[in-house]
């Protein structure tokens, strides 16, 4: 069977699946007939027979091969199979590739699988199927936050957000405001930082007539206060302050556990210093914390002391535009937390479905499951979210 024949079969099977969904609610043309209720289409039957015949012919090694995903290695011309990879494809010992992309490269490897192997089964390429290749979408936590846009709690006439677009100046302070790589998230496939709109870029494009000041203040995960003085000066000078805090993209997800879920490095101290400086110059000055992170963070001082906090996670290539739209009111925020956010690390685990083993907490009874120093409730519970209306 040729590469083109396999392509045609795959297209037929995919079209059959889509049409099964569509024809359930669409009238058929007179005389075309229809399968009996609950009966599979002829395309589905052919697909099932093909799969059954392949399984009967496969050795145990070939079945295991279909479950094997191989990494690619980088060559001078782009991704390529690791040493011996092409032979393993011919032998049916590889069923899919991770980190392998490009039309020419994938077509060449697909021809080997379809024309040179015993079973002629096409390969799967993870970046084509799962990750979006180069155009990177929000991380799953961020996508999950949009699952219920109707049940959003109104914030009322909050004085801080949305920000006015006629502000003379805005101070953007924090180590992540201009971090394009972090905007893409931890699993960025073939995404390129130069494609991403940072929050600093997004704000400057949203209010071209506003003077936007910027300083990082401190590194993300290093205890370093040398930049605090410049950050405090900008906070006093500007009409509004945006503190962009959180984690780099490599500090969460696979093989990136942390023992503490508080803000890393000196970021909490930076938030306190900048907020004090802003309020000293004008008690009514808007101060907003924008979080970029791949896990729920514990930010008790910010939650209690800063009037507005926006959780953005990592939003992909359009990060800066999306956040700017919310901050200036061009888009009404409608997200809901898909996780519970703890007050401190010691509360973890605190997910909404957890079944505690101790006595249910009662404020007036000592010998129940609670804490001496913080409430037993999360800072913000699963499903929390505010809106401008």
Structure description:
Helix 9 (199-206) packs across helix 13 (319-327) and helix 10 (228-237) packs parallel to helix 11 (267-281). 33% of the residues lie in helices and 12% in strands. The chain is globular, with a radius of gyration of 27 Å. The relative contact order is 0.11. With 389 residues, the chain is of the alpha/beta class.
Top keywords for this entry?
alpha/beta, 4-stranded mixed sheet, disordered N terminus, 13 helices, 5-stranded parallel sheet, about 400 residues
SSE-based structural type: alpha/beta
The quaternary structure here is single chain
Order of helices and strands: HHHEEHEHEHHEEHHEHEHEHEHE
Compute the number of helices.
13
Ends: how far apart?
60 Å
Main sheet: strands, sense, barrel: 5 strands, parallel
Arithmetic mean of pLDDT: 84
Total beta strands: 11
Based on CA atoms alone, the radius of gyration comes out at 27 Å
Helix content: 25-40%
Strands of the biggest beta sheet: in what spatial order?
A: 7-6-8-9-10
Give the CA-based shape.
globular
User: Would you identify the regions where 5 or more consecutive residues have pLDDT less than 50?
Assistant: 3-33
Beta fraction? 5-15%
Give a brief rundown of this model:
The protein has helices at 3-23, 42-57, 60-66, 85-90, 103-116, 126-131, 140-144, 180-183, 199-206, 228-237, 267-281, 300-305, 319-327, and strands spanning 69-75, 78-81, 96-98, 124-125, 153-154, 169-173, 211-215, 240-246, 287-292, 308-311, 386-387. It has 389 residues and is an alpha/beta fold.
């Amino acid at each position: 069977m040729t590469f083109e024949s396999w392509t045609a079969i795959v297209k037929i099977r995919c079209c059959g699946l889509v049409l099964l969904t569509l024809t359930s609610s669409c009238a058929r043309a007179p005389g075309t007939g229809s399968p009996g209720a609950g009966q599979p289409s002829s395309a589905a039957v052919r697909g099932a027979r093909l799969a059954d015949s392949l399984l009967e012919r496969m050795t145990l090694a070939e079945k295991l091969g279909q479950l094997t995903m191989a990494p690619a290695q980088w060559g001078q011309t782009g991704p390529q199979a690791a040493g011996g990879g092409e032979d393993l494809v011919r032998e049916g010992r590889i069923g899919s590739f991770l980190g392998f992309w490009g039309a020419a490269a994938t077509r060449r490897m697909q021809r080997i699988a379809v024309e040179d192997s015993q079973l002629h089964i096409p390969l799967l390429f993870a970046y084509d199927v799962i990750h979006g290749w180069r155009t990177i979408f929000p991380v799953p936590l961020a996508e999950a936050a949009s699952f219920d846009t109707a049940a959003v709690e109104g914030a009322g006439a909050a004085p801080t957000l949305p920000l006015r677009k006629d502000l003379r100046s805005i101070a953007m302070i924090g180590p992540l405001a201009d971090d394009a790589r972090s905007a893409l998230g931890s699993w960025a496939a073939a995404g390129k930082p130069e494609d991403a709109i940072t929050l600093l870029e997004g704000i400057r494009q949203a209010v071209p007539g506003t003077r936007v000041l910027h300083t990082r203040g401190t590194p993300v995960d290093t205890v370093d206060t040398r930049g605090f003085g410049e950050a405090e000066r900008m906070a006093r000078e500007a009409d509004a302050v945006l503190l962009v805090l959180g984690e780099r993209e490599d500090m969460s997800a696979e093989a990136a556990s942390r023992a503490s879920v508080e803000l890393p490095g000196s970021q909490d101290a930076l938030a306190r210093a900048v907020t004090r400086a802003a309020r000293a110059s004008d008690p009514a000055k808007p101060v907003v914390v924008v979080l970029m992170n791949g896990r729920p963070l514990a930010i008790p001082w910010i939650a209690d002391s800063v009037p507005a906090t926006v959780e953005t996670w990592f939003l992909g290539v359009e990060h800066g535009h999306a956040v700017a739209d919310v901050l200036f009111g061009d888009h009404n925020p409608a997200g809901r937390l898909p996780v519970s956010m703890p007050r401190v690390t010691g509360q973890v685990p605190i997910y909404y479905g957890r079944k505690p083993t101790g006595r249910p907490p009662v404020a007036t009874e000592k010998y129940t499951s609670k804490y001496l120093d913080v409430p037993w409730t999360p800072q913000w519970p699963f499903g929390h979210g505010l809106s401008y209306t």
